């Protein structure tokens, strides 16, 4: 059973907690951290996508954010992001390597396995620059089938036009690109 902090509209814990399943059943605002892993190859920025496991209840075999996760009660955004990177992809990272990209609130209603799903996330988005070959990642097979490096502009177009099976928020992907544009040297973003 995963316990999450209930948060206000600014992502601050209210002092109350909720089970993850109940948060999604009732649309209770909780926190998540998203990390987009980037690298520069031949003068272009590439983004790492993870392909969700085929056994996942929601969005099986869809391309997704490099690493993402719900933040357990009592944990902060950075601590959770570092934990998810290690668990899902086998990447060790430090807090000073995570580059703050922005905050966003996700409101999403759907049906998963025939049940109503009301997701209300306060998300902190980070960038991690890491040049790693796909075969070097240590994947958590219950979560991730594979990873794929893709040119960032091509990825945005593929998501925008649904050319790949995905569960990526286009606005967030564009947020990452905008963060890259603000800096001259992507390795120093």
UniProtKB/TrEMBL annotation:
Q: Which InterPro entries is this protein grouped with? A: NUDIX_hydrolase-like_dom_sf (IPR015797), NUDIX_hydrolase_dom (IPR000086)
Q: Which residues form the Nudix hydrolase domain?
A: 28-172
Q: Does the keyword Flavoprotein apply?
A: no
Q: Name one GO biological process term.
A: isopentenyl diphosphate biosynthetic process
Q: Where is this region: Disordered?
A: 1-21
Q: Where are the transmembrane segments?
A: none
Write down the Pfam families for this protein, in alphabetical order: NUDIX (PF00293)
| Gene3D superfamilies recorded | Nucleoside Triphosphate Pyrophosphohydrolase
Q: Does the keyword Hydrolase apply?
A: yes
Q: Where is the composition biased (Basic and acidic residues)?
A: 7-21
What are the GO cellular component annotations? Answer: cytoplasm
UniProt-recorded Gene Ontology molecular function terms: hydrolase activity; isopentenyl-diphosphate delta-isomerase activity
- Entry keyword set: Hydrolase
Protein name per the record: NUDIX hydrolase
Q: Which organism is it from?
A: Acetivibrio thermocellus (strain ATCC 27405 / DSM 1237 / JCM 9322 / NBRC 103400 / NCIMB 10682 / NRRL B-4536 / VPI 7372) (Clostridium thermocellum)
């Amino acid at each position: 059973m995963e316990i999450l902090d209930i948060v206000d509209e600014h992502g601050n814990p209210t002092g109350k907690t909720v089970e993850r399943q109940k948060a999604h059943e009732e649309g209770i605002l909780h926190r998540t951290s998203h990390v987009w892993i980037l690298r520069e190859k031949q003068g272009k920025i590439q983004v790492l996508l993870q392909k969700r496991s085929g056994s996942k209840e929601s969005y099986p075999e869809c391309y997704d954010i490099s690493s993402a996760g719900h933040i357990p009660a009592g944990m902060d955004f950075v601590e959770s992001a570092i934990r998810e990177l290690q668990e899902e992809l086998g990447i060790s990272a430090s807090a000073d390597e995570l580059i703050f990209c922005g905050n966003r609130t996700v409101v999403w209603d759907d049906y998963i396995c025939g049940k109503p799903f009301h997701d209300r996330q306060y998300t902190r988005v980070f960038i991690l620059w890491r040049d790693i070959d796909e075969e070097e990642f240590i994947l958590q097979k219950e979560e991730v089938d594979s990873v794929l490096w893709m040119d960032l502009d091509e990825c945005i177009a593929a998501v925008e036009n649904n050319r790949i099976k995905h569960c990526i928020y286009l606005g967030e992907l564009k947020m990452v690109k905008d963060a890259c544009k603000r800096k001259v040297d992507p390795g120093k973003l």
